[in-house]
Amino acid sequence: MSVLDFFEIILSFSAIIFLTVILGKYMALVFEGKIAIFNKIENIVYNVLGLKTQNEMNWIDYTLNVLVFNLIGFIFVLVILMMQNLLPLNPQHFSGLSFPLAFNIAASFVTNTNWQSYGGESTLSYFSQMLALGTQNFLSAATGITVLLALIRGLSRKSVQEQKIAMLGNFWKDLTRSTLFILIPLSIFLAFILIKQGTIQNFTSYIHATSIEGKEQLLPGGPAASQIAIKQLGTNGGGFFNVNSAHPYENPTPLTNWLSLLSIILIPAALTYTYGLMIGDKKQGWAIFAAMMILLMVGTFLIIHSDLSVNSMEGKETRIGIINSSMWTGWTTAASNGSVNAMISSQAPISGAIAMLNIMLGEVIFGGVGCGLYGMILFVILTVFLSGLMVGRTPEYLGKKIESREIKMIILAILAPSACILIGGALGLSTQMGLSSLSHKGPHGLSEVLYAFASAAGNNGSAFAGLNANTNFYNYLLGFTMIIGRFAVLIPVMAIAGSMVAKKSSPPSFGTLATDNTIFVILLIGVIIIVGALTFLPALSLGPIVEQFLMNKKILF
Prior knowledge:
- By secondary structure, the chain is mainly alpha-helical.
- The chain has one domain.
- The chain has 18 helices and four strands.
- The strands form two sheets. It has a two-stranded antiparallel ribbon. A two-stranded antiparallel ribbon has the order 3-4.
- The chain starts with a helix and ends with a helix.
């Protein structure tokens, strides 16, 4: 590792810490309605759309609005993809997609997964990319933020009497503020920089060109920059082109690579500071941020060390190099982003194991926009409960008692995605339909299937590469896995918010476990790792871990 590489790593982590405070404070002001000009703008939007946002919702109404809104989005995307041959902005005259592939893509983008069983430049029209996928890039990210806001209110509001019969806010107001004042402005800002650096943004037909080797080449076009900006900021990850951020039209320069890397973590990190401000205790937000940052740093440096020990450029863009590829893999799998600038399949086996583990831990190492933090809060509550049992302290969080209802919901939210990963992986490895898509046998083939279901259940969207996932078997199975991975966590979170908001808040006592100090951060990290290790270590041992041993044996002998 050169001095310049080391400097870039330090600069990247430092920039996230610095921007967390700035953006986190801004988002808290937006969500609490403390910016007057924004209030006037959003009221115009509500009037035009006929939305009644003055009334707050209980957890059931809020959840139903989330589910119905996402169902409409799913149907909207599905119809556009299947009918894209009849719609405008299709200069390559692509045909409509089959139902299984359209179902998979619709499930993918509505759940903020952005898994891709297709090549963007060879499958989708500009209209489909913009109106179907681009719209969901904004709305699926905003949905995650709305659920987080409901949970924050459930934890922070002091009593039922204070907030009118256990209300959690208004879904439409939260959705509008998240989209209009957070995601859109940041995306416009980043898109302009990307365009300036060379990321394409046009509506031209593909161009036939002759390469310097004298070979015919088809150069794709399209409105890429606008979608690349929100794919990174919204922790979506779906590439406009098949090779994602390794494509020079998506990621042309070192600056675009670095800004995209920061964008992957930016909003999830800043939301921890927003959380601290909104609950009235910044130390709580910093404690969660510290746990996330420690896990991110450890994972990233393990991936970098593993890749440098192999020192291979296979599967990596020569413009980007090993260090930037390794960092990207560590950050994108920790943030539920899913974009890639290298082939994870070609990285060191231990690097692939860390990338998988980042997802398998529940996508809580910053995780997706909104959903990463509410997933981490579930682990915080679980840690408080387990620690209280061990030392005899009162299981309370933010002054509210943790009871069996909350723990049952947390266990459901943790087990559902985990079961999908292991059951789905078992089906992929034990059926002829699943095995027929493998490009490798042995432990590497196991990793291909295991990673696919981990990525789907964790709503990450990155691919190990090598697995032919565009089959009816994988399109349906992974599609349902994405839906379960999203909503089997979201619904329990909303139930916990509804349960906690109805509880009276009591001041800390001698028996209350502090959740804002170093000891608790260590306990929290321990619980996260233990849950992940106990659940997935056997599967990882048969895949990337044994592959690492086999590779070391070849190197030694």
